[in-house]
Specification:
Elements: H1 9-20, H2 23-32, H3 40-45, H4 50-62, E1 66-69, E2 72-75, H5 77-87, H6 90-93, E3 113-116, H7 119-131, E4 136-141, H8 146-157, E5 161-167, H9 172-183, H10 188-195, E6 201-204, E7 210-213, E8 217-221, E9 230-233, H11 236-252, E10 254-255
Parallel strand pairs: 4-5, 5-6
Antiparallel strand pairs: 1-2, 3-9, 4-7, 6-10, 7-8, 8-9
Helix pairs in contact: 2-4, 7-8
Length: 263
């Protein structure tokens, strides 16, 4: 995919996240932090094939994470930021013997990155983060989960401001039916969100699912047809970038009016 000046911000972000979802490309990214010369020795060291190796180099280069200069591959400035974000805590959480549930307990502390490789853990994180929200939730999702929907509704009852974008591929009628079982118990402010959804709810082309809470915590997934990896970050630049991405998609998305049977 081309990443010229005409490429949108979220297309570029999706390409980067796709790269981060490939273990072999992560190894090359990590190796580029110290700089390396390309050749048979490197291919052997990485235990890969020449075809995969050069394909990975091309994709990393296209994502503007590495650059070939003076016979060496090195990280670009963007690559340095991504490398710091991914590998800052990776030895502690991904390569250790700890249970992957342990990192979930520290959401909101000063650590900048959490890694999630289990879908159930992701739902646990999303619900816990929503429950801790104080003012605003921005949610862009390519699918719907009833547990997360319930948490969103409870947040609305606490007067949390919520803006939601769902993928155009989501069955919107199914979403309305999903909400139906909760409508009778909704307070007026939450019911206003459901019925007057054009002000809070939109449908658009989403490259990935992500959420930002209180402009402090972000949760985002590696884009794919099925769940592979997700990250929780409190890094200010990551949160800022995802907020910008959300509003970029929001402005390009279509409004939806939700009519729910309250009888």
């Amino acid at each position: 995919m081309s990443h010229g000046s005409n490429a949108s911000g979220y297309e570029k972000l999706a390409a980067i996240l796709n790269v981060l979802g490939d273990p072999e490309q992560l190894r090359i990214l990590d190796k580029a932090a110290a700089g390396f010369e390309s050749g048979k020795g490197t291919i052997k060291e990485l235990k890969t094939t020449p075809r995969k190796y050069y394909r990975n180099l091309r994709e990393l280069n296209d994502a503007e994470l590495i650059i070939h200069f003076e016979n060496k591959y090195n990280l670009t400035p963007l690559g340095e930021v991504v490398h710091k974000l991914i590998f800052n805590d990776i030895s502690r959480y991904l390569f250790s013997d700890q249970s992957m549930s342990e990192p979930l307990k520290g959401i909101g502390n000063k650590t900048e990155l959490r890694i999630i490789d289990d879908y159930k853990d992701l739902i646990t994180v999303l619900v816990a983060t929503i429950e801790k929200s104080k003012s605003e939730i921005l949610l862009a999702t390519k699918y719907l989960d009833i547990t997360v929907v319930q948490s969103i509704i409870f947040a609305l009852q606490r007067n949390i401001t919520i803006k939601t974008i769902t993928s155009e591929k989501v069955d919107f009628s199914g979403f309305v039916k999903l909400l139906g079982s909760f409508v009778r118990n909704l307070r007026p402010n939450a019911l206003k969100f459901v019925v007057g959804g054009e002000n809070n709810y939109r449908s658009g082309n989403l490259p990935l699912s992500f959420m930002i809470v209180d402009n402090e915590i972000s949760v985002f997934e590696i884009p794919d047809d099925k769940f592979r990896l997700a990250f929780v970050s409190t890094d200010k630049e990551v949160v800022k970038s995802l907020c910008s991405l959300f509003w970029e998609i929001w402005n390009q998305s279509r409004k939806l009016h939700m009519k729910v049977d309250k009888s």
